[in-house]
Every structure is written in C-alpha cells, then in structure tokens.
Design brief:
Number of helices: 2
Helix content: over 70%
Number of domains: 1
Structural class: mainly alpha
Length: about 80
C-alpha cells in the first residue's frame, strides 16, 4: 500500500470505531432491561453498565484520535509539497 492509501484506510477505520462507539451507546438502554431480568446479573447491573459505557467511550475516543492524527498527517503532506 502507498502511504496515502494507508492514511485513507486508517481514517476509514477511525470512522468505523466512532460508529461502533455510538452504536454501543445506542444499544445499552435496549439491552440493560433484558439483562436485569436475569437473576444472575441483578446485583451487578451497575458494574455492567459502567463496563459497556467505558467500552463505548474507548471506541469513540480511539476513533476520534485515529481520525485526527491521520488528517493531520494529510495536512503535513500537503504543506510539504
């Protein structure tokens, strides 16, 4: 792969990470009532919510970081030309 193709791929991957993080935030309110119905998980529902939200934050933040870094690489390449 050429360096510009790699950067474009990394930007696409970052956008997908952002979308996955948003998807986790969207699904948590839908999934939690089903988990609360199971007797095994009733005592640890707050911990499970925390873990899911943490996963969403990590995905979203990592995607934003990846997109930001690769867009800045593109800007650096354009200023060098």
């Amino acid at each position: 792969m050429k360096p510009t193709e790699t950067i474009q791929f990394q930007i696409i991957w970052g956008v997908l990470l952002i979308l996955a993080g948003i998807g986790v935030f969207y699904r948590i309110p839908q999934v939690m009532p089903r988990l609360a119905d199971l007797e095994i998980f009733t005592s640890i529902i707050p911990f499970i919510k925390f873990c899911f939200y943490l996963i969403g934050i990590i995905l979203f933040g990592g995607g934003i970081q990846k997109v930001y870094k690769n867009i800045s690489k593109i800007k650096e390449e354009k200023t060098e030309e």
